[in-house]
Design goal:
- The protein is α/β, with parallel strands linked by helices.
- The chain has helices spanning 30-33, 46-50, 69-82, 94-97, 107-122, 138-142, 150-166, 179-188, 199-224, 247-270, 275-282, 294-298, 351-364, 391-409, 452-469; strands spanning 23-27, 87-91, 126-132, 172-177, 230-236, 240-242, 304-308, 313-316, 334-336, 369-373, 414-420, 439-442, 447-450.
- It is globular and about 55 Å long.
- GO terms for molecular function: beta-glucosidase activity.
- The active site is at residue 373.
- Keywords: Carbohydrate metabolism, Cellulose degradation, Glycosidase, Hydrolase, Polysaccharide degradation.
Length: 470
């Protein structure tokens, strides 16, 4: 078969500088694709609730059906295998496995994931499980949510239920996906479930998310004994570049980097929170709720760091009218727009900053990394022949994969790349308005169609593997 040429004019070619065991994958999450929201014992998550809040989600859309993956799973696995990837990253739905967030496991919920894992393994695709991708059982939110310390212990209990059921056939486990989003979008900015707006609660959520991660990691490591286990966490990370060389702009970048990167990686890798950020929070009357033993648990050794990268950012330390403080009298940390290409999310496209990020992570934290999400939403159009020419997405993937290769050539220990997303899906507060998939989903018929980007990705993987054999 000759490689397909995307309509962007980009022809698939072998990617240089990647090791023979480099992982190629695609990624999804449970609430975004599964549907079956009320079937087989699943109870509501915070997203089921949030979607019913007037004005919270585009067109009042929700994940009740989503991509109907719960009923179409075998066909979806066949589609995944046809892309030639060796790894599929997916998340477990906590309220499907442990309804209400307490008590014993739900056998029917676990059976679905056992079937999924077996289908993947039967097709030669490695399952890569994420335990938490934002679907907290609503009952736990009613009891305080992530700002409540008990939620960390409930998470560790749920993690062990999942590991005990699936650990004999799954080696790769991620505890949390993007705890920054869970804490800040969910509890500080009100843009994600559960829609709360209190910075103090958000900072408590940060600590308890990390504590839950550490407790789960420690217990899973102990339970594994000598069995294979690759354990990690996935963080959404970017770069922070000052608009100018001014002290104010450098300070804005320090704060942005501290709140977005170091607040998570320092305790995970070094067992301590960054003191400058602790001081910044104290100036606002906020203290992280750390107790004896918490940081030791959070720093449970990991095997891999999952990196979700979508964009870097430029920051200024002054308002547009030149003030160094905002309306509340706090130092300004303002994102500055650049004249760069953008996605349908209005996100700047900054592939070279992925190289910068990976080199920085290698230098400062020295954990092996895998790109667990990278991709872009664009306004796709179906051609008269039924194909989906998505030249912008193909170019996006090509540029970011090249950035990964460049990072490896310059010394970063990057071990895999997973495209986000396998298919169009429920995009949180954007509902079904934004399409990230390399596979198009017709939400009326649930028909799946490979976009040109999927064909390009498939052929790029094949050519890269073949080049290593030659």
């Amino acid at each position: 078969m000759n490689p397909a040429t995307s309509r962007s004019g980009l022809q698939p070619t072998a990617v240089q500088g990647l090791p023979a065991d480099f992982r190629w994958g695609v990624a999804t999450s449970s609430y975004q694709i599964e549907g079956a929201a009320r079937e087989d014992g699943r109870t509501p998550s915070i997203w089921d609730t949030y979607c019913r809040v007037p004005g919270a989600v585009h067109n009042a859309e929700h994940g009740d059906t989503a991509c109907d993956h719960y009923h179409r799973m075998p066909q979806d696995v066949e589609l995944i295998a046809g892309l030639g990837v060796d790894t599929y990253r997916f998340s477990l739905a906590w309220p499907r496995i442990q309804p209400g967030g307490r008590g014993p496991a739900n056998a029917k919920g676990l059976d679905f994931y056992k079937r999924l894992v077996d289908e993947l393994r039967g097709r030669g695709v490695t399952p890569w499980i994420t335990l938490y991708h934002w679907d907290l059982p609503q009952e736990l939110e009613d009891a305080g949510g992530w700002p409540a310390r008990d939620t960390a212990f409930r998470f560790a209990e749920y993690a062990m239920l999942a590991y005990e059921a699936l650990g004999d056939r799954v080696e790769h486990w991620t505890t949390l996906n993007e705890p920054w989003c869970s804490a800040m979008l969910g509890y500080a900015y009100g843009a994600h479930a559960p829609g709360r707006t209190d910075l103090g609660d958000a900072m408590a959520a940060v600590h308890h998310l990390l504590l839950g991660h550490g407790l789960a990691a420690r217990q899973m490591r102990e339970a594994a004994g000598g069995n294979p286990l690759e354990l990690g966490i996935t963080l959404n990370l970017g770069t922070a570049t000052p608009e100018t060389g001014s002290e104010a702009d450098r300070e804005a970048c320090r704060r942005a980097d501290g709140m977005g990167t170091r607040l998570y990686l320092d305790p995970i890798v070094r067992g301590c929170y960054p003191q400058d950020i602790v001081g910044d929070l104290a100036a606002q009357g906020i203290e992280l709720p750390v107790r004896d033993g918490d940081l030791a648990a959070i720093a449970t050794p990991l095997d891999v760091l999952g990196v979700n990268f979508y964009r870097g950012a430029l920051f200024s330390g002054v308002t547009e009218d030149g003030s160094p403080t905002d309306a509340d009298g706090l130092p300004v940390t303002r994102g500055v727009e650049r004249d760069l290409p953008r996605t349908a999310m209005d996100w700047e496209i900054t592939p070279t900053e992925l190289t910068d990020l990976l080199l920085r992570l290698q230098r400062d934290y020295a954990l092996p990394t895998v790109i667990t999400e990278n991709g872009a939403a664009f306004d796709d159009t179906v051609a008269p022949d039924g194909s989906v020419p998505d030249a912008d997405r193909t170019a996006y993937l090509a540029d970011h994969i090249a950035a990964v290769s460049e990072a490896r050539l310059r010394g970063a220990d990057v071990r895999g790349y997973f495209a986000w997303s396998l298919m169009d899906n429920f995009e949180w507060a954007y509902g079904y308005d934004k399409r990230f998939g390399i596979v198009r989903v017709d939400y009326d018929t649930q028909r799946r169609t490979l976009k040109d980007s999927a064909k390009w990705y498939r052929d790029t993987i094949r050519l890269t593997r073949n080049a290593r054999r030659d």
